[in-house]
Structures are given as C-alpha cells and as structure tokens.
Known about the structure:
- The protein is mainly alpha-helical.
- The protein is built from 7 helices and 2 strands; from the N terminus they run ββααααααα.
- The protein has a two-stranded antiparallel ribbon.
- The longest helix has 18 residues, at 133-150.
Amino acid sequence: MCCLLATGGGKWYTFFIMALPIQKLREIVFHLLYSRDFEASREDAFPFLMEHHKVTKKSLHQAEDILSELLKHHSEIDASIKAFSKEYEFDRIPRVERNVLRLGIFEMLYSKDTPPKVAMSEAIRLARKYATAESAQFVNGVLDSVYKGSHAT
C-alpha cells in the first residue's frame, strides 16, 4: 500500500505500508488458537509469535481480532466438527487438526473476506504444514462435508 506524506515546506514523500500477507495472518491466528488449548497466556505467546513469524505487536493484535471473532462462533464451529467428523470422536481429533478445522470452518461460514474454497485450501495447507498428509486428507473430508452441508437446499 502506498501513501503520501506531506511535510512542512510543501514537500511530499511517498512511503509504503507493508500489509501482513493473509497466509501469514492466518498462521498466526492458528497459532493463537492452538496455544489456547494449552492455556498459554497472551504474554507467553506474543514474544514467541513475534520471533517465529517476524511480525510486530500490531500484527498480533490484528490476528487477535480475528481470533476474537472466531471465538464468538466457537460452540457452533465445534458442533459442525462433531457432526461432520465421521472417523473420530471430537476429543480424539488431535489438537492441530481440531484447530485447523476450527479456523477453516470459521473462514468458510463466518468470514466474508475468504471464499469457502480458498478457506478449505488454506486449511489443508496448514494441516500439511503442521501435521501430516493424512491429516490434510481428514481436514479436507470434514471441511468438504461442512461445505456441502451448509450449501444444501
């Protein structure tokens, strides 16, 4: 994003504001969500995430805002996982996969910024990155069922 800045003396300077790439923001939201499973405090998570992702506190606050929106729908999201997860009981789903599913379902059903198919693709990418190829298949299957269930007439 490009902005102009006026200074005294009639000079204008162009500067660039680097927006956080959505994939990186999504990963930070995932890490914040995952850290909640371990009851990690914000004070514990922020320094690690800032170092790991090379981001500022402002970026982490942006991710927290998204997490806050997700948590408003937490019970509905978990109910969807329970309803469409045919292979495992909810409590048996590993934490990584469970939180990838939570984020994917949030983006598919409650986020107006992300098309459902993109949300599914990104959730599968996160599952591959932080879990296994088999986990990615599981995530794909559950999200596909949720998508079809939410678009049934």
